Amino acid sequence: MTTPTLEQLKLKYQSVLNLMNNLGVQLKNVHLQENKLVIRGEAKTKSDSFKVWDQIKLVNRHFSQDLIAEITFLKDDLGGQETPPHALRVHVVVPGDTLSKIAKTYYGDASLYKRIYEANKDKLKDPDTIVPGQVLVVPE
To answer: Taking phi first (over 0 means left), then psi (-120 to 50 degrees means alpha), and beta for anything else, what does residue 80 get?
Structure first.
């Protein structure tokens, strides 16, 4: 299996990039990191950031295999209050994942797995037990 190029992954997720442009999401950067496409952007509203995530999942429900997306927002229009930018980063667990492996991917340090565990205590009873298909929040 060949390693995907930046252009191949951008083409795969072009509908996401198009939606971001149509919604006025400010694109911070798009690059390749560890064979994954990284998209960072800032939406005007939380609902716009959710629309981007919905499109990502339409393109590939197992997006975490080839995409890292960080979509922040300026205004929480779902709660009605101005808020500072928040990253909405999620990771869909795939076979072979561990919290340490996920922490290494997002933070560059496997020992930071506790951040992910703490953010997902409502879903995880044990940091050593995650299952494919679980959607985990990955805090900044």
So the answer is: left
